[in-house]
Structure formats: structure tokens, C-alpha cells
Design brief:
Layout lengths: L14 H4 L8 H6 L11 E2 L6 E2 L7 E5 H6 L15 E5 L7 E5 L2 E3 L10 E5 L2 E3 L12 E8 L13 E7 L7 E9 L3 E13 L3 E12 L3 E6 L7 E2 L2 E13 L4 E12 L7 E2 L17 E3 L7 E13 L4 E19 L9 E21 L2 E21 L1 H8 L5 E22 L4 E23 L28 E3 L13 E19 L2 E12 L17 E14 L3 E21 L9 E22 L4 E17 L14 E11 L6 E10 L2 E4 L2 E6 L2 E11 L5 E8 L7 E10 L5 E3 L6 E6 L4 E10 L1
């Protein structure tokens, strides 16, 4: 199974930011907003780990604040892609929460344990190491920042494409309580309760939140091999809770400790058969949201963690921070690759991970320069197992009861880094930014991989009446170790494969303040994605070196008067040592399937990103964002070879309008946007699944009572009901006449997963204070 074959359960990550005091902007706040007075809004960001305005930061960044999220009815992370040029954030394959993230064509498609992301996810500056759960529901977010391009100095490894930052709201210290309900298409019914209580006046505050989010499926499983199955497909069944303590010990010392837990019991997501099955009665369904399965339809993602922050203002110019976290996750999932009621190509899997992070910052601001510096430590363990069940092939070709390739293993990492980045005034108008980070990382990996001539599942209770075969080796491993060392010869790896990497990543930039409202900048930055071991190894192969991106940017941040904002960035990058699985042998023969992970390719890209805001009147604001990328393959030793960029259109744009209507009942805000994505392929090595260019139209109207207590919003998404691919599997062969033949498993497994259809939902909320 190659890198386009598998997707993990991604269901609940940032509901750590998801649950707190989810309060929209009050009427008074709206009245005080500069943009409501017909002027450009002053937007604060923390892209450089300190609070600055959007227009003074020499970084390609999109920032979406809480009011904008509310007015657009943005409920999940994937909708943010509409507002950030050259950005892909999509629910991918297998579950309703698998995130595929690419920025400027750089990311990571395969979320199997051991692989590292190419786009970093941060919640209040805490790095979320695994992609599981990254399609979050947005609840207590003050703003979301999308940083485009390598962020290797301040954010470190695994941000070669960019970083996505969730900045949550700090408590006000006042007693308040918020209750909110939502109803909508497909029987959507959400309930959220949040609040905060001062335990010690002006000192100690307690915040809490709970959300229960439910929706029927967009489609159904038309056939299922198991009895008493929940046949909803693309449904939602999630709850999340959190608690936070904030302590303002003195004017200079602030402490925050938070806990969160999320459990997502939404069904596994079934794919749409783009071709009829050759082996069973599974024609192409009428709806792209309908499917078939021979696996259980249940799925689960459980995440829990704690985080903490200590912020000390040592002097007027010096700030000391300690940021830490401890998180763990567990996700059993069922992915039916062939999407039939026959066991042609089924992949039940189980994932466990836990990690701790510690970061110490010292930040200095004064005397014509700024300095952000720190030490970072990460210790993580990521383990899992999956069974590629090819039962039909085993019975037909080998005359055995079934056939399974089982893979189990762990990929553990210890990493530390030291970094510093400073901005210095050279003249009254010219400044320079210099930054560097040194990262040292050690990884340990074990892999067990082999064939079992029976249908095997991860646990005894996976299939009703199923008993897992007696383990041939210790630790319930029924396949032999292949990566690591079995020094005792007892079938247990007691000495994992070990490899370490270190990297120095610099940043250099110049900024020229042409006028008070116009700044030009040029920068060079480098980022890298961690080296790793092949989690599907079949031999004791070495790890691969990190991927490296060298990026150049030339940009302008400009405000033209009080009404027009134009931010434009030209970029060019070289992406070297790209990690790819190479398939050896006959990929249609599971007994010969052999894989190697190599640094097999190099690519280049150039492009442009532009964001415009025009405040036409005191009540009407127009926005536009445009992205273009031109891609070239420089080195191509991947097997199969690269042919393009995955899930990355050459051209994207978004056009939006916001209109404020004052009334005796309170303000109404009307919002409409049209988002267009050019055509793209789903996988970099295959054009068997491709999406034509499409556009989506969205419309919202929000209202708030003049006293700020009652509020409501009506939101229509994808009003033209566009059908668009966001993921898939392509295990087929293509004949000379263009027809399709069977691939791995013996069937025409060409599967698509689709984005959300047209939906409408109404939210009503009430605040107490």
C-alpha cells in the first residue's frame, strides 16, 4: 500500500481551543469597530510570536478574527481554506475528520504513524504533533492565522509549507454564561454551553465549556456484510469538554492551566465507487455520499490533554514565557478501500499516540529592535497497527480461508531546538530581520510486517464472533519483526532502529517602510520536515533524511487611504529530498508487494498571493483573495513517478461582500462569498482521480440584539450544491485502450470522497452576565 492508500482517523484535535467562552462580538464592540465607521480594521497577529499588526509583519499571512468567523458561519477548519490563497484544508479519506493540509503545494498526505506533517498546527503556541483530529469545530477561537511558506525559525520542523495557528480568547474576569443551539440540514442539532466565573476577584478565574454536535449522514451504506449496522455515511456524533484556570498573580505574572477532552463517535466514512465492482454486486451509487462496506461502520477518536502557560513581564522590555503540554490520543478506525460488501480490500486500524512539549521563551522589545528567542523540547510516541484484509483474493488465488498483510509498529521521537529571531532598524525606513534555529532529533522505530493466510483484525471484538488467531510471537504480534533488531531470536524487537538528524535553519529579511502605510519586504527562509523511518517497512531499511525547502519572498503590505488595503506576495521555492514510497515488484501481487521509503524527488514552484480589502461605505466592505502557483519537477526518482502537485489547484480566488444594516431590533450583517478552485489531481503520482475546477457560493445573515444578549445567524453553504472530490483511492490498472482493469485485491478499486453538499443551518444563542 503506497502513500495514497491510507488515511487515519482525524477527529478531535483542536477542540482544545474548541471549547471555552464562545461569545460573538457584542453590539457595543461592533459599534466601536473602526471598520463599522467606514475605515480599515486594525488587525493584530502573533505570526512572529509577539503581538503585532498585520500590516507591519513581513510574512505572507491570512488572519480571520472571531467576528468574521461568526459572520461567515465558519464552523470547521476546512472552511478557512476559502480565505487563504494557495491553501488546501480538506476532509480527506476514511473518516469525517481526516485533514489533508497543503500550503503552496507543500504538505503531507499520508497520516500513518511515523510520517510528519508539512503544515504545522498550533493552539496557543502549543505544537500539535499528529494530524489526527485536525478537522476541528471552531468554538472559542479569537482568531485563526494561516502563515504561508516555511516557518523553520520560530516554529521549527514540519512547517515547510506553513503553519496554522489557533489563538483562543483570554478570560475577561467577569461572570458570564452562554448557551447556544443550532439546527440545520440533515437533522443537524448542536448544543454548546460555555462560561466563566471569577473565583478570586481580579485574580483567579475558572472557565468551562461543553459541546454536543450531531448530524445525520449525507448518505448511507447501501449494502453491509454485518448485521445491525448503523448505515449512516458522512454523519457526525461528537462531544467535547474543557476546563481552564487563569491566575493573574500580579500585574506582571500570568498563569493559565487548561484541560480538554474530545470523543468523536461519527461513523467511518465510506467512499463512492467511481467504477462498478468486477467481483460483487456493487454498481456505481446514485449519490456520491452512498457506499457499501464489509467492515463495521463504527469509528472512534478520543483525545485528551492538558496545557499550561506562565507569562512573566520581567521588565517593561523583557518577557519570559513557559509553554507546555501533555496529550494523548486513541483512534480505532475502519476503512473499506474497495467499498463493497465483500472482503476485497479492507483496512481496519488502530492508532495510539502521546507526547509532551516544553518551550521556554525570552522576548525583548526596545531600543529600535525586537528579539524573540527560546528553547523547545518534544518527546512523543506514536504507535499503531493495521490489517490489509484481502480475503477474496486469498480464497480465489491461494485457496486459503483469507489473506491479510498485517503491519504494526511504533515511531518515537525526542527533539530539542534553540532559536532566535531579531528585527533591527538600520535606518529610519530600513530594517532587517535575522533568525536561526538549530534542531536536534532522534527517532526510534520498530515495524512488524507479514502475511497471514486468514482474515485478521486488530482486536477480537472488531467483527462479531471473531477471535483473533493465537499470536505467534509475544506482544500479540502474529507477523515477524522487520525493522529493528530481535537480539534474542524470540520474534520480539528489543532494539529498535535508531537514527538522528540535526538541522540549522536560517531566515534573513529586509523591510523598507516606504511611507506610514506602505511597506516592502524581501526574505529568504528555510524549513525542513523531519527525517523518518518507513512505517510500512518490509525489510530493516534505514531512515530517510529530512525534506528541505528554501523559499524566497518579495512582498508589499499597503493601506491606500482609509478604505483600500492591498497585500501582495511573490514567492519562489526549492523543495529538496522529498520523501516517497517506492513500490518494488508486482503491485497486483500482495505476496510480492515490497516498499522502500526514499528521498526520491525535488520540485520547484513560483507563485503570487494577493489579498484586497475595500471599505466602500460605512456599511459595505468588499474582499478578494487570489492565489496562483506554477510548479516544476526537477528530480523524479519516485516510484511511481511524480506528475504534479496533490490537491493543489494552479489558481484559486475568493470574492466576498459584507453589509451592515442597522435597525431598531439591532444590527444585521449580511455576508456572501464566492470561492473558486481550479482543477487538480488528488495524488502527486496519479491522474486517475482528478477534480475539475469548481466554485462555491455561500451566504449568511447574522443578527444581534442591541443589548448584546440574544444573537442569531442563518448560514447557507455550497448553495449551488457542487460535488467536489477531496480524497480517494486508486488501486486499478489502466489498459492500453483507456479502460480499467483490476488492481490490488483483484477489483477495480477507484474510490472518491466528497466535500459537503448544500447545507443550511440556524444558530440562536443567549448570553448571561
Amino acid at each position: 500500500m503506497n502513500s495514497n492508500r491510507f488515511s487515519v482517523s482525524l477527529c478531535a484535535l483542536a477542540v482544545t481551543s474548541a471549547l471555552a467562552v464562545a461569545l460573538p462580538a457584542t453590539a457595543q464592540e461592533a459599534a466601536d469597530d473602526e471598520q463599522a465607521k467606514g475605515k480599515l480594521e486594525r488587525i493584530e497577529v502573533t505570526a512572529r510570536r509577539t503581538v503585532e499588526t498585520l500590516q507591519e509583519v513581513p510574512v505572507a499571512i491570512t488572519s480571520i478574527g472571531a467576528a468574521e468567523l461568526q459572520e461567515n458561519g465558519i464552523a470547521v477548519l476546512t472552511e478557512v481554506q476559502q480565505f487563504s490563497p494557495n491553501t488546501t484544508l480538506q476532509m480527506s479519506r476514511g473518516t469525517n475528520s481526516t485533514l489533508t493540509a497543503f500550503i503552496r503545494g507543500v504538505g503531507q498526505q499520508d497520516p500513518l504513524w511515523g510520517y510528519e506533517p508539512g503544515v504545522g498546527i498550533y493552539i496557543d503556541d502549543v505544537y500539535i504533533a499528529r494530524p489526527q483530529g485536525a478537522v476541528l469545530d471552531l468554538l472559542d477561537v479569537q482568531r485563526i492565522e494561516v502563515l504561508r511558506g516555511p516557518q523553520g525559525t520560530l516554529y521549527g520542523k514540519n512547517t515547510i509549507g506553513g503553519a496554522i495557528k489557533y489563538v483562543t480568547k483570554k478570560m475577561t474576569g467577569d461572570t458570564n454564561f452562554n448557551i447556544e443551539g443550532t439546527v440545520g440540514s440533515y437533522s443537524q442539532r448542536d448544543a454548546k454551553v460555555t462560561g466563566q466565573i471569577p473565583l478570586v476577584e481580579d485574580k483567579l478565574y475558572f472557565g468551562f465549556g461543553y459541546a454536543n454536535l450531531n448530524r445525520d449522514g449525507y448518505g448511507e451504506y447501501l449494502q453491509s456484510a454485518l448485521p445491525n449496522q448503523d448505515r449512516e455515511n458522512y454523519n457526525k456524533d461528537l462531544w467535547a469538554a474543557r476546563a481552564t484556570l487563569e491566575y493573574q498573580a500580579t500585574d506582571d505574572l500570568f498563569i493559565r492551566v487548561g484541560w480538554d477532552k474530545t470523543e468523536d463517535d461519527s461513523n467511518a466514512k465510506g467512499g463512492y465507487r467511481l467504477l462498478p465492482s468486477l467481483l460483487t454486486d456493487a454498481p456505481v451509487p446514485d449519490s456520491v455520499y452512498d457506499s457499501y462496506t464489509s467492515l463495521p461502520t463504527w469509528n472512534k477518536v478520543e483525545l485528551e490533554g492538558i496545557n499550561w502557560l506562565v507569562n512573566w513581564s520581567a521588565t517593561d522590555d523583557l518577557e519570559i514565557k513557559y509553554i507546555g503540554s501533555s496529550r494523548e490520543g486513541y483512534s480505532p478506525t475502519n476503512i473499506d478501500f474497495d467499498n463493497t460488501a465483500l472482503d476485497i480490500f479492507d483496512v481496519p486500524a488502530e492508532y495510539k499516540d502521546e507526547n509532551t512539549t516544553h518551550e521556554f521563551q525570552a522576548n525583548y522589545f526596545g531600543g529600535g529592535y525586537k528579539l524573540v528567542s527560546g528553547l523547545y523540547f518534544y518527546d512523543g510516541e506514536s504507535c499503531g497497527n493495521f490489517d490489509a484484509v484481502l480475503g477474496f483474493l486469498g480464497r480465489a488465488a491461494f485457496g486459503v480461508p483469507g489473506l491479510t498483510r498485517e503491519v504494526t509498529g511504533c515511531n518515537n521521537s525526542e527533539s530539542w531546538a534553540v532559536y532566535a529571531q531579531g528585527s533591527f532598524d538600520l535606518t529610519e525606513k530600513l530594517s532587517m530581520t535575522v533568525g536561526a534555529r538549530y534542531t536536534d532529533e532522534e527517532k526510534q522505530a520498530i515495524v512488524n510486517n507479514g502475511l497471514v493466510f486468514a482474515n485478521v483484525y486488530p482486536q477480537d471484538d472488531w467483527i462479531p464472533g471473531y477471535d483473533r488467531p493465537d499470536a505467534a510471537f509475544a506482544n500479540d504480534q502474529i507477523v515477524p519483526p522487520v525493522l529493528g533488531t530481535d537480539t534474542n531470536g524470540d520474534g520480539v524487537i528489543d532494539a529498535p532502529a535508531v537514527e538522528s538528524w540535526s538541522r540549522f535553519t536560517p531566515r534573513f529579511g529586509l523591510e523598507y517602510q516606504y511611507s506610514d502605510d506602505v511597506m516592502f519586504f524581501a526574505s529568504y527562509s528555510q524549513g525542513f520536515k523531519s527525517g523518518t523511518f518507513n512505517p510500512r517497512a518490509t525489510i530493516n531499511e534505514p531512515g530517510v533524511a529530512p525534506e528541505v525547502v528554501d523559499s524566497f519572498e518579495l512582498g508589499m503590505k499597503s493601506d491606500w487611504g482609509e478604505n483600500l488595503r492591498a497585500n501582495i506576495t511573490l514567492f519562489s521555492y526549492d523543495h529538496k529530498d522529498r520523501q516517497y514510497i517506492g513500490v518494488e515488484g508486482n503491485s497486483n501481487d500482495p505476496t510480492a508487494l515490497d516498499q522502500r521509503l526514499r528521498n526520491a524527488a525535488a520540485t520547484e514552484a513560483d507563485g503570487i498571493e494577493a489579498d484586497f480589502t475595500y471599505v466602500a461605505t460605512e456599511n459595505l466592505t468588499l474582499n478578494a483573495s487570489i492565489g496562483y502557483i506554477d510548479f516544476e519537477i526537477v528530480e523524479n526518482n519516485a516510484i511511481p513517478p511524480l506528475i504534479g502537485l496533490a490537491s493543489t489547484p494552479e489558481f484559486t480566488y475568493n470574492l466576498a461582500a459584507t453589509y451592515l444594516l442597522e435597525s431598531d431590533m439591532g444590527p444585521f450583517v449580511f455576508n456572501a462569498n464566492y470561492y473558486y478552485r481550479d482543477d487538480y489531481i488528488l495524488f502527486e503520482t496519479s491522474d486517475l482521480i482528478a477534480q475539475d475546477g469548481y466554485g462555491m457560493l455561500n451566504f449568511s445573515v447574522t443578527w444581534e440584539h442591541e443589548d448584546g444578549q440574544w444573537y442569531a445567524g442563518l448560514h447557507g453553504k455550497n448553495l449551488t450544491d457542487e460535488e467536489y472530490l477531496v480524497g480517494g483511492y486508486d488501486f486499478v490498472t489502466r489498459n492500453e485502450d483507456g479502460s480499467y482493469g483490476p488492481g490490488l485485491g483483484g477489483d477495480t478499486t477507484l474510490i472518491g470522497y466528497y466535500g459537503d453538499p448544500r447545507t443550511v443551518h440556524l444558530t440562536v444563542g443567549y448570553r448571561f452576565w
